């Protein structure tokens, strides 16, 4: 398989340490299962703590040996090497000291099901060891193989090849669930769930149960995360009028928008935008 042809590289150095982020592209044949590949390497003399908002992307972390602490869903200070963070409608915090080196694969909720064959409800709101989610990856010593390769191009190519192999043998999501997810995603979380359920011709209980099992959240909770993601992008792009932004994104009013930021990002829209600006500089 050909390696990704375009890589986006970012590097930052300071008196306290340095980091390098390299972004690649998933193989097009993975379709909507995988939405991003990112290699990282960093070192810091001080403790590095990062606060992350809720997201519809499901991160698969392939560590090359370093551990990282993750606070999520009320669990504080658990340390992990390679893991999958399940779909979670709330913020999370990571921290490390000394070094980090590895590769992150951003999957969609249905991509997790289609590649690993594990329903999203099995680990929603949890951090799960890679060996528990995908023992096949542990059996092939994937992290050691990736660490031994010389370039990020080679690593991205190797990960794409393995993900394609897993996807070829993985289960197909329920067509009804796939359709509902696509409608929620296209509407950026603004569509009325009752209308979607009505179009399926099934009971609300049946539809919600099937969706929750495979995606990991109910349709309403998933829509809330996708709506927030859209609002967060606009807030960080400089859209200062929160009342207009709330209407544009389908919130009842500005207070509704602010409550969702508090619930899903752990801070106000203004604080979220400032944190994003600081991280980018």
List the helices and strands and how they pair.
Elements: E1 8-13, E2 17-24, E3 34-52, E4 58-63, E5 68-72, E6 75-80, E7 83-85, E8 92-107, H1 109-116, E9 127-129, H2 130-133, H3 135-139, H4 142-148, H5 152-169, H6 175-186, H7 193-200, H8 204-215, H9 219-236, H10 242-248, H11 254-264, H12 269-280
Helix pairs in contact: 6-7, 6-8, 6-9, 9-11
Note down, in words, how this protein is organized.
By secondary structure, the protein is an alpha+beta fold. It has 2 domains: 8-169, Jelly Rolls, CATH 2.60.120.10; 175-280, Orthogonal Bundle (Arc Repressor Mutant, subunit A). Helix content is 43%, strand content 26%. The protein contains 12 helices and 9 strands. Strands 1, 2, 3, 4, 5, 6, 7, 8 and 9 form a 9-stranded antiparallel β-sheet that branches. A hairpin with a 2-residue loop joins β5 and β6. α6 runs antiparallel to α7 (193-200), α6 crosses α8 (204-215) and α9 crosses α11 (254-264). The protein is globular. It starts with 7 loop residues before the first strand and ends with a helix. The model has no long low-confidence stretch (mean pLDDT 91).
Short description:
The protein has twelve helices and nine strands. By secondary structure, it is of the alpha+beta class. The longest helix has 18 residues.
Overall pLDDT metric: 91
What number of domains? 2
Distance between the termini: 36 Å
CATH third-tier fold name of the largest domain: Jelly Rolls
CATH architecture grouping of the largest domain: Sandwich
In terms of per-residue confidence, which ranges show pLDDT below 50 for 5 or more consecutive residues? none
Give the C-level CATH assignment of the largest domain.
Mainly Beta
Q: SS-based structural class?
A: alpha+beta
State the helical fraction.
40-55%
């Amino acid at each position: 398989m050909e390696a990704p042809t375009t890589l986006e590289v970012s590097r930052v150095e300071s008196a306290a340490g340095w980091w390098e982020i390299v972004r690649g592209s998933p193989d097009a044949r993975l379709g909507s299962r995988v939405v991003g590949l990112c290699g990282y390497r960093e070192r810091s003399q001080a403790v590095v703590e990062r606060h992350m908002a809720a997201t519809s992307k499901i991160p698969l972390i392939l560590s090359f040996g370093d551990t990282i602490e993750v606070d999520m869903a009320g669990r504080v200070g658990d340390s992990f090497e390679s893991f999958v963070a399940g779909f979670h409608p709330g913020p999370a915090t990571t921290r490390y000291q000394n070094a980090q080196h590895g590769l992150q694969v951003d999957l969609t909720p249905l991509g997790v099901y289609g590649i690993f064959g594990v329903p999203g409800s099995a680990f929603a709101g949890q951090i799960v060891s890679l060996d528990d989610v995908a023992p096949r990856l542990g059996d092939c010593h994937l992290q050691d193989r990736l660490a031994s390769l010389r370039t990020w191009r080679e690593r991205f190519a190797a990960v794409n090849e393995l993900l394609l192999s897993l996807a070829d043998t993985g289960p197909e999501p329920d067509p009804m669930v796939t359709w509902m997810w696509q409608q929620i995603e296209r509407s950026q979380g603004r569509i009325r769930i009752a209308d979607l359920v009505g179009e399926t011709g099934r009971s609300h209980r049946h539809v919600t149960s099937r969706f929750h099992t495979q995606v990991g959240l109910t349709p309403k909770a998933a829509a809330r995360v996708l709506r927030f993601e859209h609002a967060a992008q606009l807030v960080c792009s400089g859209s200062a009028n929160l009342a207009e932004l709330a209407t544009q994104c389908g919130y009842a009013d500005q207070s509704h928008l602010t409550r969702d930021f508090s619930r899903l990002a752990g801070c106000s829209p203004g604080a979220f935008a400032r944190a994003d600006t600081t991280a980018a500089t």
